[in-house]
Automatic annotation (TrEMBL):
Transmembrane segments: none
Gene3D superfamilies: 3.30.1330.30
GO cellular component: ribosome
Name recorded for this polypeptide: 50S ribosomal protein L7
Domain Ribosomal protein eL8/eL30/eS12/Gadd45, first and last residues per copy: 9-87
Organism of this sequence: Lactobacillus intestinalis
Length: 103
């Protein structure tokens, strides 16, 4: 299995474990509460939504990645979402490692 699919599968596993919040407003609210450790944006997300989430993430020193398309994120979490927030540092480290290995 290639690294890209492993990374997508990891997002699905995190979702099933209850370690992912989904949707723009929910992710921004949880960023403000310091619950989100990593933001995952769809690579084809609208510019104004990217800016809105970026402001909240930067204000709270939370890293963001946009390596996956909206379809890949939807398939990973089973919901039609383009903005995800990972709340577990272990899943965050594993996802970043997979991305650094090449997706």
């Amino acid at each position: 299995m290639q690294n890209r699919q492993k990374a997508v599968n990891l997002l699905g596993l995190a979702m099933r474990a209850g370690k992912v919040v989904t949707g723009t407003e929910t992710v921004i609210a949880d960023l403000k509460k310091k619950k989100v450790k990593l933001v995952v944006l769809a690579s084809d997300l609208q510019k104004n939504t990217i800016e809105k989430v970026s402001r909240a993430a930067n204000k709270n020193n939370v890293p963001m990645i946009s390596e996956f398309t909206a379809v890949e994120l939807e398939n990973a979490v089973g919901k039609k979402r383009k903005v995800l927030g990972l709340t577990d540092s272990g899943f965050c480290k594993a996802l970043v490692k997979k991305i650094n290995e090449g997706v």
